[in-house]
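Hi there, hope your week has been kind to you so far. Do you reckon you could talk me through the fold, stretch by stretch? I've dropped the whole record in just underneath, so have a look:
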Amino acid sequence: MPQFTKSRTLAVPVKTPQGHFFFAGHTIERVKWWSSGPMRKLYFLLVVMIMTDTANDFDRSMMNGLQSLSYWQEYFNHPSGSILGLFNASMSLGSLIGLFFVAYTIDLLGRRAGVLIGSVIMCLGVGLQTGAANFGMFVASRLLIGFGDCIFLGSAPLHITELAPPQDRAVLVTLFGASYHSGAFIASWVTCATLKIPSDQSWRLPSLLQCTFSIIISIAILFTPESPRWLISKDRSEEALDIIAKYHSVNDDRDDKLVQLDYNEIVAAIKMDQEANRTG
């Protein structure tokens, strides 16, 4: 019996017209965000939020730099073997513990609350590490930093994704991921700068500077709007629509095509999630 090959149609990518972008099956004209005060504010705050990944790697890479400092080595009696392993692994252990809390925190309290709570816990851990008087205090501080970092890092990228205007959402989320290694770069140079301080301040000062990004982000989050998706999931749709209209359009127009598409897409996605949860 003769075999007939099926004709296949190749999908050819369609280039976006200049000054436009594709969203929800529509071609939308890009918004000149710099011409709108609320949008300028939003982009600035989102860039600050991107620093959460810088803070994450700064804190995680700090241990590498501290181990090169003679005063740190002498203060903790030149740790090695399993003791040194615990020094290094304690932050990751704190993050593992945080995994049991992060989802409930950001779903019940919101993305903004998650970022703020994580930042505050990290600052407490940094204070404990800076004033550490013994091995136990230092390990406890790293556990606390790791715990806060888990909540911090579980909230921020979600908040950026759900709050960023569709036209630049992919760029902003990519910048978040790409900022990770900048933290290691900064941590290395900080410990290099304190290397020649002839006292315990050579390791206490870098420890204290870990809270720099957390403090900046804690202040910024107070001025950052809540995630529209979270608001809609909590039956606060009017607030969500107001935020989308204010920060995703130039004229604060609730009837703007992009605003309506953005809002309706979120509503549809939440309904699909709820339906999937009901059907198992």
Remarks:
- The mean pLDDT is 89.
